[in-house]
Amino acid sequence: MRLFIAVDAPVSVRQKISYVQERLVEIPGVSVTPNASLHATLKFIGETEENVTKVAAKVQEALRDFCPFKADVTGIGVFPGENHPRIVWVGCPALLSLQKALTDEDNTTPIPHITIARVRDGRGKMELLKNVAQLRGQSYGTMSIEEVKIKSSILAPNGPVHKDEATIKLDFTRP
Q1: Is residue 174 domain-resident?
Q2: Residues 9-60: pLDDT tens digits?
Q3: Residue 175 is assigned to a structural domain of this protein
């Protein structure tokens, strides 16, 4: 099973992102992520034979010291860079502490972000970069981080299909 750990984007954030996606979908070579499935990936686990219950127990242990918090969704950029953009993202820098708790030194997961579009080819590169520059300081709202999810990902011809496999509540209560 192909797994990853994520935080779902709430409707209010997805709604603001949808306005950006409406602009991006008009650019040749760009396809937008289905708005209903927008999420911030904290860790990509990949193919594993490990039972989801065991993975969930490890995640719960790694996040035992976290209580619910708020995270601003702000900014926009491209990965791996402007020379060859492949991913268009909006940032969630406040999720970095969760991400660090879940990963080791060899982590290759990029900074916490929500992938809002993918660039299939370079036909619209200049138009894409112009849009990204215009939207750089944009805010997309705040997420209430109360839980993380372990999701499975099945690669399909029209893009990956994600399914929630487990939910881990952030419930540490400070004295």
Answers
A1: no
A2: 999 999 999 999 999 999 999 999 999 999 999 998 989 998 999 999 999 9
A3: no
